[in-house]
Write the structure tokens for this entry.
Amino acid sequence: MGNPFVVAAGEVGGDFFKERSSGTLPCQADESHLFCFDWAKENIDRYGTPAQQHLEIVLLSVLIGFVVAFALALLAHRTRWLQPPLLAATGILYTIPSIAFFFLLLPLTGFGRDTAVLVLSAYTLQIIYRNTMLGLDNVPDSVKDAARGMGLTNRQILWKVELPLATPEIIAGLRVATASTIAITTLVVLISAGGLGTEMYGSNFNFPTAILIAVAIIALMVLAFDLLLLTAQRLLTPWRKV
Amino acid sequence: MSEQTASSVRYVEATKRYPGASSPAVDKLTLEVPAGEICVLVGPSGCGKTTAMRMVNRTVEISEGDVLVGEDSVRDREPAQLRREIGYVIQQVGLFPHRTISENIGAVPQLLGWEKDRIRQRSSELLELIGLDPELGDRYPAQLSGGQQQRVGVARALAADPLVMLMDEPFGAIDPINRERLQNEFLRLQAEIRKTVLFVTHDIDEAIKMGDRVAVMREGGRIEQYATPAELLMAPANEFVEDFVGADRALKRLALMRVRDIHLWEAPLAHVGQATGEVRAKLESPDVEVAFPLLVDAERRPLGWLSERDLAAEVVPGRPDSPLGPVLELDDVMRDALADLLQHETQYAPVIDHAGRIAGVLSVEIISEFLGSPEAKSDEHPAVERPHG
Amino acid sequence: MNVHPLLASFSGAVEFIFIPQESNVTGGKEVGGFDKTMELLVGHIEVTVLALAIALLVGLPLGLYLGHKEKGELVAVGIGNAGRAIPELAVIALVATLVGIGLRNVAPALALLGIAPILNNAYVGVRQVDPATVDAARGMGMSELSIIRKVELPLAIPTVMGGIRSAAIVIVATATIAPLAGVESLGDFILNRNVYGENGLLAGAILVALLALTIEGSLALLQRRLTSDGLKVKTA
């Protein structure tokens, strides 16, 4: 014992931590320990690869999901009657629990990252599609009327007026999609696609420390992306700070 | 400003049918608006006036018949191209919230491919023209008041120097005080730039004030009368027009007159330092029209009214007892002048010319005399002329 | 993509649901079949309903109250956002290890996951009610509780139900891995491939998907029933 963390924790948590961080019994052998600082310090490196895998899968999924959902929304924006069926279709994809979805696709795409990305992208479709539609619908009629009357073509109105004004809602959808994708990606360990779920499963299942570290990394990722997207929104919509 | 001349607008049996409707929204409308004039389309809601206006820039497609701008049919043009040559102002303005004021104003020039410098210059030009601080150009619409936004809407429509302007209840959403200001400013502007304007309103008073010609419409875009405001007031074509114009036609005519159009009274003038005896002598003259002397300076600019107490002294004092009260100008619209007199509860108001010199005195009596006179009821009346420039 | 083996897998799975199969993995013992399927289905529904009930009991009143008082925006929205980012696997693992296994322990944990959307949506739904309407109700002399019950809640139904549906989705999904914490559910078929075989795996996936869609569909119908006609006209 001499680890400064442990010592400090001992001062703060009193007996609770002192007991559980005793140097005589290896921390990880006792299942009920909440957090083993020693182990954490020594093993933090093993989170590198899973975290990277996790990030890659999330980025791919959100990107693909965004492109598809965005395209669908633009389509539905022009062709009104497509809206209810598209909303329903993306909704169904969202309702099916991811685990079930992973394994439903097994006969087609097998284990591994492809299935993971496919399912996760499908998951993001509803929220991004819905929010994009919402953003577009919220553009005031008078602005569209003026734009049309001034001589902008339909395409110009969409790209120069409607989409810029819909940006806040679109980014809101992206934030939700990203956060939930980061969380669900933990499950891809079940189809051998890696990710931070690997540190929560198998031998680590009964080891809270490992799980908590993984959760912490996930929380950091969520916060980081949220901040990133919020900043992007601020930059893209300078008129809103008014 | 560019040298482009305005175009005339001509409806030739223009018809608009909506699917499922029993009768057309606009039925065989035939109307000609001469270039450079303001034509007001007025009528009850649902009469088709807005639909008719929108047929000109094809924001409403024409079912049958045609609309000509100048010599060209609008149906031959590609809609987006056509609209870039026509100014479009709507009631809720519809400024782009995500663009600065300058960018809003420069929207059509940008579509037309003007160079950046030219656009920027034009934006500041127009901001000045509509009476806004050029600094506002960098603000966003949300930072402007309703009245300011409305002005920007007009500036935006004027930016590319269009042949025709379409205005759909542009001042409808503004409070009455600012509405009057905006109307006056637009008329002043129009006197300079002389665009062809199609102006839609449901307010007959606005129609009379703004229009060179007024078309009173009813359902189906049917024109009951298309005439100058004066004709409308003096010789309504039928009961519908009469009812729509309202019973107070004579009073409405005051909106057509300027203060200069009426014979003003003269007040005895007094200068500072003048012997009060002289002033009193003027007052005693038999054909004096105003019972109080008006103090003026060396340039004959009014300073105030003199009271008995002032005249008790030997010499006319520099500071008159009574303040000046409302001061009117020769170019003021008569209706507004009457409103001023009544509001300040004053009997007389001095009227000044462009240089600020006294031109006469207006009183409520003069106006009411005029309204009752045979001159007012006659067909020929010099005040019917809409003063230009 | 060869369609034939695809159909074969799916038909094999469907068979598994209804007829006990001889599993070549466990040395000839029979696995699967209708009885087993029903057992797991009931288990899945049990934990889902329990967790949803708890989440409703806690999240709904709290969300409605906070929304009505227009307080605690940071908390309500924050919880909503945070809830989305909680990894289900971590919840199950931590519960199993630190608290205990079995329905008694797992259901509250699942409820926690469901509280987030219910609370968030109840809050937002009530906040979005036109203040003028609430003002009028108050002016008419309605008690605060009546206002929540008769004015705000009915008007907030679409948003509130949306939250309940989200909660149901996440609870059903997490219940699928509840077997890891000793709770019987359809996830058993999926997680214990060595017992139930490939057919069981696929069967489990299909059943879970169907269950989720059924629950979501029912809730959607319920929402439509509960939404007043006046609101339906507006959103049409």
